[in-house]
Write a structure and sequence with these properties.
Strand order of the largest sheet of chain B: 2-1-3-4-5-11
Number of strands of chain B: 13
Shape of chain A: globular
Number of helices of chain A: 15
CATH topology of the largest domain in chain B: Rossmann fold
CATH class of chain A: Mainly Alpha
Structural class of chain A: mainly alpha
Number of strands of chain A: 4
CATH topology of chain A: ABC transporter involved in vitamin B12 uptake, BtuC
Number of helices of chain B: 11
Helix content of chain B: 40-55%
Strand content of chain B: 15-25%
Number of domains of chain B: 2
Radius of gyration of chain A: 20 Å
Strand order of the largest sheet of chain A: 1-4
Order of helices and strands of chain A: HHHHHHEHEEHHHHEHHHH
CATH architecture of the largest domain in chain B: 3-Layer(aba) Sandwich
Oligomer: heterodimer
Distance between the termini of chain A: 19 Å
CATH superfamily of the largest domain in chain B: Response regulator
């Protein structure tokens, strides 16, 4: 079993190729916007980019696990909103502030676990499940907040606005989550299981791997990261607003796929996902600083993404994963 | 030919009589209701049903909905309400559901001013009067009424107020969604009127897509890239938390009257704006009198049901500038000032 599991691991050469394409794309975007605006490559602006991308980076770590199992989670924006709304309710009810971040994150984990149980134990399509929970969670959050702006007290904004030493807390949190994600994926049996399930869930089940438990876990991780991202984003905003998190799932999924994860499962990289987030944030920031017409923003954004994908294709990034080929040869459908 | 005779005896006979009686009763009931519906539709009483489709639900939309429901109650009009959650396709589907239900009229706030034209045309084909409120619909469909604020005039009022400050202003011009007629109108109204004032200079234009996080990031980046910015045009009170948070982070949030105060003028008049005026974070808020939109739309629909009026009635409700200078005497006229801020202050 160990050798089979090892064979399912994304080859180090393949990961390096993928990461190189994304890294090259990030460098090109950086150079391009540095040339377009003298304010882009300043320390202050780069720090802004890191802070602004922290929430998406945290969620990208969670989404990487999900996509590596050949799943998808489009409810992360809604989980971000609901966990934030729940946290704001706890504040107004007088729950001690020191407990609320932990409770919000655990609540996010629970929301994600609901997705995971439905996907893992009821074998339902993850897109359909998370589409349903997207609407459910957003509806509940809207009910909690009465679709109004809920201002947060200063102690609720700590994760978004404070510093640890001279480093903004969002950057510290995102870094810690990324390191934890890399460790979990690369240095634990769980990480091997994630890759195995994504490569060929049927074969993994035949090997005796706890496929259902793995699926519940990855969606729970996605929910946990959404809860944490909510604390960061709403902490920065100083309020929970009705449209918070809307569209965030597309940004995060784009970043993860851009970073080398295969939608067919079995392949992914936390570092790649973070580079994907970095590219998207640099584009969003650079477009404003370059004083370009707002009507060009979507065109340029899409062009950058397309170029990055083509670059990755040129480096063999979109080859089918080994597990996918096995599925075709054996003619079995992953469970 | 032999005649047909029915012997009404026994259980079969009783059942037959009961069946005939039931059918007769039902037929009488249907004809009575149909007659009542026809006459009540003409009179505008309880059987008139209007489908209301909003693009989203936030503070300002809730005020608009409240205005519609209150007025509908006085006119004995039933309201069916749906929210599209910023999804134009979902809105199209919801309006199609109204059409399928054969409502007496439709009122909509378009999520996408151009995309809603197809829904308007569908209602036109079904003979259902359609009124657009808050946001102007694109051209191509027949409306019985278009009741909106006047975004061009509101944007101009912002420029007028900034011009009246008589000090050099380097303005960060925030823009809403580029598919939103209100956003474009407010921007264009501001830019056009600002040309009259030599003290106003637009340093940076920032699209926000009406998204608080995009606004937060954009304002933060703009303040860092252009330290000379000392004024902000915020096109909606909904984005005020993002503006205030960015200023706090940059150490530039100062109260009105202090030397470091950043001139901020916004539009809408919701409780965010009113609260910010009370806290002296902002200078002025051009309030949109949204409570008037729905009643005018309902009147137009009821009138169209009787007269089949072919011409669109366009009503542009002017905004009201609520400022630090006139707050004491004017805030009672602004709907958002009657709503307390949610959560902590």
């Amino acid at each position: 079993m160990t050798s089979r599991l090892a064979s399912l691991r994304t080859g180090s050469a393949g990961a390096l190729l993928v990461r190189s394409a994304v890294l090259l794309a990030a460098v090109i975007v950086f150079v391009a916007f540095s040339l377009a605006s003298s304010k882009f490559a300043t320390g202050a602006n780069l720090r802004n980019i890191a802070v602004e991308g922290a929430g998406s980076a945290v969620m990208a770590v969670g989404m990487t696990f999900v996509i590596m199992t050949a799943g998808i989670d489009i409810s992360i924006g809604a989980m971000l909103f609901l966990s934030s709304a729940a946290a704001s309710e706890l504040f107004t009810k007088g729950v001690p502030a020191v407990w609320i971040p932990l409770l919000a994150v655990l609540f996010g984990l629970l929301l994600g676990a609901v997705n995971g149980v439905t996907v893992g134990y009821l074998s339902m399509n993850p897109l359909i499940v998370t589409l349903a929970t997207l609407n459910l969670y957003r509806g509940v959050a809207g009910h909690l907040t009465k679709f109004s702006t809920v201002y947060l007290p200063s102690q609720a904004q700590a994760l978004g606005t404070s510093h640890i030493g001279s480093i903004p807390t969002p950057i510290v949190v995102a870094t810690a989550v990324a390191l934890a994600g890399i460790f979990l994926l690369r240095a634990t049996v769980f990480g091997r299981y994630v890759q195995a399930v994504g490569s060929n869930a049927h074969a993994a089940r035949e090997l005796g791997l706890p496929v259902r438990w793995v699926l519940v876990s990855v969606y729970a991780i996605s929910g946990l990261t959404a809860g944490l991202a909510g604390l960061i984003e709403n902490g920065r905003l100083g309020a929970v607003q009705p449209t918070v998190g809307t569209g965030e799932e597309l940004t995060v999924i784009t970043a993860v796929v851009l970073g080398g994860a295969s939608l067919f499962g079995g392949r992914g990289s936390i570092v790649g996902s973070l580079l994907g987030v970095l590219i998207l944030e640099m584009v969003a920031d650079g477009l404003v600083l370059a004083h370009l017409s707002p009507y060009l923003f979507d065109i340029i954004r899409a062009s950058v993404l397309l170029a990055a994908v083509l670059l990755a294709m040129a480096q063999g990034r979109l080859q089918r994963p080994l597990g996918g080929a096995r599925r075709l040869r054996w003619g079995v459908t992953p469970g | 030919m032999r005649g047909i005779s029915i012997r009404l005896t026994g259980r079969k006979g009783i059942a037959f009589v009961l069946l005939v009686a039931a059918v007769a009763t039902a037929a009488a009931g249907v004809s009575r209701n149909a007659g009542a519906a026809r006459s009540s539709a003409a009179k505008g009483s309880a059987t008139v049903t209007i489908g209301v489709s909003f693009d989203l639900l936030n503070q300002i939309r809730k005020a608009e909905l409240a205005g519609i429901k209150q007025y509908a109650a006085t006119k004995h009009v039933k309201i069916i309400f749906s929210v599209a959650n910023n999804d134009p396709n979902q809105q199209a589907q919801q309006i199609q559901n109204f059409i399928s239900q054969k409502v007496s009229g439709i009122i909509a706030i378009a999520q996408n001013s151009d995309q809603i034209v197809s829904s308007i045309r569908a209602a036109n084909r079904a003979g259902i009067p359609f009124a657009s409120i808050d946001r102007a619909a694109g051209k191509g469909g027949k409306l019985v009424a278009q009741v909106t604020g006047n975004p061009l005039a509101d944007g101009a009022k912002v420029a007028d107020y900034m011009g009246s400050l008589h000090k050099p202003l380097n303005v960060l011009l925030m823009v809403g969604a580029l598919t939103d007629a209100n956003a474009i109108g407010r921007r264009d109204g501001f830019k056009s009127e600002a040309k009259r004032f030599s003290n106003i200079k637009i340093v940076q234009e920032l699209p926000t897509n009406w998204d608080p996080t995009t606004a937060l990031n954009g304002v933060t980046n703009a303040l860092q890239a252009h330290p000379e910015i000392n004024a902000i045009f915020d096109p909606s009170d909904y984005l005020l938390p993002a503006v205030v948070s960015s200023l706090k982070t940059a150490g530039k949030l100062a109260l009105v009257g202090s030397a470091k105060h950043m001139a901020i003028v916004t539009i809408d008049g919701d409780n965010n704006g009113c609260g910010a005026l009370r806290r002296k974070w902002i200078d002025a808020d051009v309030a949109t009198l949204v409570g008037n939109f729905g009643p005018r739309a309902i009147d137009a629909i009821l009138a169209a049901g009787v007269t089949h009026a072919p011409k669109t009635k366009v009503v542009e409700v002017p905004g009201l500038t609520l400022s630090q200078q006139n707050f004491a005497t004017t805030h009672s006229k602004v709907w958002g000032c009657a709503i307390p801020a949610n959560g902590f202050k």
